[in-house]
Amino acid sequence: MAEKAIELVFPSAKHKKLCEEFVKAHEGEKHVPGASGIEKLPFDEWLEKVRAKHEGENLPKGYVPSTNLLCLYEGRLVGIVDIRHHLNERLLAAGGHIGYTVHKAERRKGFGKAVLQASAAYAKKHFGITTVLVTCHENNEASRRTIKACGGVYENTVYDEELGDVERYWIDV
Question: At the topology level of CATH, where does 7-172 sit?
Fold first, then answer.
């Protein structure tokens, strides 16, 4: 399969319809990884939250600045990513540098790999991160395969009170 050229863009008001369609496709999910609560907040509030996180403003205790980006392919929203600017103790243990979700309608089409590769390159270019930590739930075979396809090297599995058993992988960028 040919590599997919993913465009990573900072969300803005012009993306409202795409984001609303994304949320509708993920209805019923308690949590959409990497999307910073897009499924729970009105769009304008979500945009403000994303802006503030990017700037490191009013972060809850234990959070670090991070950048949410929309993952576009040929004008379609195929995913959302959250790139943490650096790791704190908890992220190093179980959260990692990059969290992401691929649109339900776009899964099993190679977008996970394309999104992760584009996100790792972004982390290197914008934050100087040359080795990214990516994690997945122990029972998430699709995510494990994606991480390995991007060069992820397994380090270990840890238990996190909130996340459960989490596998940790490092990817050289």
Answer: Aminopeptidase (3.40.630)
